[in-house]
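Margin note: ligand = fe (ii) ion.
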Amino acid sequence: MIEKVQFRYSDDITVVNEEQFDAHIRLYEGYVTNINKIDSILIHGDAQRDQSNTTFSWYRELKRGETFALDGVILHELYFENIGGRSPSPKTATIDLIEQDFGSVKYWKEDFIATAKASRGWAMLCFDQRSMRLRNISLDAHDVGNIAYSAPILVLDMYEHAYFLQYADKKVDYIDAFMKNINWTIVDGRLN
Ligand SMILES: [Fe+2]
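Resulting structure:
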């Protein structure tokens, strides 16, 4: 059973207003409900394993829903945790590694913003354990575009539901506000 994490709006959160934040939290809670439903069917219910096939089957729907809902839960928790920071350019271990892997913080920021603009789902700074370096990656859905064996360090929700209530089509304003509200202490903790 997956328990939902309680997130509350505070004055430290400047990337979105309270109305946008609360609507987003309700959506996150829906993913928690859904992964628990899917897990329940897979463990105790009628998953119809004998009918499983690649074209259409209830078991295939459960497997697609399992990664979509669980990644939806995990990525939203990472996103809500890594907003609310007040220091735009701290000197942290993550920043040191960004300078090493991207050449400069300025270049990394340009690349992360471009990644966000290109993403239909999520933009993430990940530590790729195969090449032992940081990468900015673009996900078109919770479970589409992830690198296997990589760890998310910084997560930005680029689904329209994350900003449209407040920003409408001003996506770039939302990205800019996010870049100024990153909680680098949390980000650094993940890297460690
Ligand atoms: Fe979201």
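The chain has a mean pLDDT of 96.
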